[in-house]
Amino acid sequence: MAAFARVSGSVGLITLQNPPVNALSAAVRQGIVDSVQRALREPEVKCVVICGQNGIFCGGADIREFSGPMSGPPLIPMIHSIEVAAKPVVAAIEGSALGGGLEIALGCHYRIAHSKTRLGLPEVTLGLLPAAGGSQRLPRLIGVPAALDLITTGRHVTAAEALQLGMVDQVTDRNVTDVAVKFALSVVGKPLDARRISMHSCPHSPDLDELFERTMQHVRQRARGAIAPVACVQAVRAAATLPYAQGMEKERELMATLFTSGQARALQYCFFAQRAIGRWSMPSGARWDTSKPRPVHKTAVIGLGTMGRGIAVTLAQAGFPVIAVENHEKQLMEAKQAISGMLERGAKRRGVTPVLNKITYSRDIQSVANADLVIEAVFEDMALKEKVFQQLSAICKPGALLCTNTSGLNVDHLASQVRNPELVVGMHFFAPAHVMKLLEVVYGPRSSPEALATAMAVGKKIGKVSVAVGNCQGFVGNRMLEHYMEQALFLLEEGATPELVDQALEEFGFAMGVFRVSDLSGLDIGWRIRKGKGLAVPDPTTGQTARVQQGRRYSPVADLICEQGRFGQKTGQGWYQYNTPGSRVGKPDPWVHNFLKDYRAQHGLVARRIDHQEVLERCLYSMINEGFRILEDGIAAGPEDIDVIYVFGYNWPRHRGGPMFYAHMVGLPKVLERLEHYHQAHPDVPSLQPCNLLRKLVANGSPPIQKWKEVMKKINSRL
Ligand SMILES: CCCCCCCCCCCCC/C=C/C(=O)SCCNC(=O)CCNC(=O)[C@H](O)C(C)(C)COP(=O)(O)OP(=O)(O)OC[C@H]1O[C@@H](n2cnc3c(N)ncnc32)[C@H](O)[C@@H]1OP(=O)(O)O
Fold first, then answer.
1. Which fold has domain 2-259?
2. Which residues line ligand 1 (CB under 6 A)?
3. pTM for the full model?
4. Environment class of residue 525 by beta-carbon count within 10 Å: exposed (0-12), middle (13-18) or buried (19+)?
5. pLDDT tens track for 699-709
6. Which residues are designated catalytic?
7. What pLDDT, on the 0 to 100 scale, is given for residue 719?
């Protein structure tokens, strides 16, 4: 709702009241409409101030209302009534003014912001555009180039930047409502037309046509198939070229298309999923709101390879003192230099002082004795990690949390190496660790709720999107990825080329297809892991790696490519060819095509035509099927956890919501039917066999994704 009060004799103060972010629910909109009418009606009221309660102006339209029938007064006429008011209206902005919240402020005649406020029109990130006049008013206020930037990216600006852009009239460090009340009294009686943004055209900008063309091209390239950024450009173009009323009509038309789109549903799902993962629970019943994290003051990182360096930087940038340990002198020196460079570049980008003194370096593992949390990031080798954990168990102070950054080794096994297994968890960072947002926090059956709560709290403090998952081979992300990659290799055996597979995945919205990603990260990593599992090993009698291993189909194609020394970009050759080692631009490679032809001939495989649809269905549905198995096993608490992992760690196109949401959008019966079809054609590929939970969900009438947990509970009593 919104409260009305008369303050300082003649100021009508309207306070938005809808915790936690004063979202513009139907009740709040009704409250504003009533309050504005009252303020205009009462002769004692000479001016109006609009503010929000609890330190936040407004987080925008109530996103939860978008999924049901809309009721209550609409935003556009409400904002119009503020703009045409005959008494001056001042927005007193603190905390955040986002989306519809900023659009209300743009309807006011003046805007005063607290210095800590952030403002923005983030609708594009929800698959929408600022359709309460924001796309038409903002360019009129701050000019087309700046408005295009803000509206197409959805980025938030600080109060200082907002002042510079002309979005606000004044910034204060004092109580913003008090300042706004005083200011409102000072403008009573002044003409208002000049302050009504919709009455003006956009300020002149040269070469507008060229700007729109360039922006459209840029937006299309970056959007990977997302439609909202394109609609945002079209809406701003309408503001620049049409009178206000016609611009508003265009804004409405564009919004009508976006509002009901699957992409908007996916992006809004992601918004809530990202928040839901913070409310973790363990099979034991322990939860985020009943488990207290331990205090963490000092941290340590063991092993300063690529991952260790990134982790140390992340911890230091978040303010933690870090003891960085590396026992090889040369590696330690190199790491020191690399870490300092990363900290300096990061600080420059953020306009702050580099925190070089947060990190102390040591060759001696004993130096971590006083750390509250230690992250082991040594080479991915179980024997080596075991040794490190045994040492840590003897060295670390009681109560210290011992974490491993393994990307898939058994966390329980590592826990068994220490005196206090309840204090062991996995903290699986993604490379580069100081850039990638995702953190999988892996708990085992012996991890205590306190240990998980501590790792989750540290994850939050270092700015990671942290997802709690159970322990299993590959955890959630890599366990699913294995099936995706396996299908891609099978498709090569059956007639596809790397570029055909990649093109299908890139058209779907991945920034890079599976083979391009392999070339970028290095083919040798997977090869080493497969050898470790006893897979990529030639049969001593035939000299060939078998195509059936451990009772299932196996493709040795990637191993054979590695045997040629083709490790991807770093060697100048992999699934693609590169002009020089280290070059980033790959071209289709006739050598790979001939190799595949020979390989098929050698194994009596007949190449067939494979289309994009098959690529998508085989790669994505096999991975989704594994996602259902993960839910069935209780490794992830819900589909949101899996989707957040894929969006933040594996570049899954956000406008498709994550693999599990995608399955829900495609329709579970269709996913089931296609998996059955492919499993019939490839009975030796178990990952194509539809899993129990998927069948159960379909048998239960394919409930919406928000209701899957009910069916999951029936299958797995631990959940
Ligand atoms: C048939 C065709 C018809 C077509 C026409 C349709 C007509 C419709 C026209 C409507 C025009 C609308 C135009 C305006 C659109 C919008 O405003 S869309 C919303 C834009 N705003 C945002 O994107 C901001 C989202 N929120 C945030 O970024 C952050 O929450 C915050 C405000 C910066 C605060 O951050 P923090 O303090 O970290 O808190 P959080 O944990 O993020 O949030 C706390 C809880 O609040 C929930 N929440 C936040 N914002 C909203 C919101 N706008 N609506 C609903 N709920 C919100 C958030 O989910 C958290 O709750 P839990 O999920 O329960 O944890």
1. 2-enoyl-CoA Hydratase; Chain A, domain 1 (3.90.226)
2. 20-21, 23, 59-64, 75, 96, 98-100, 122-123, 126, 128, 130-132, 255-256, 259-260, 272, 275
3. 0.95
4. middle
5. 999 999 999 99
6. 103, 123
7. 44
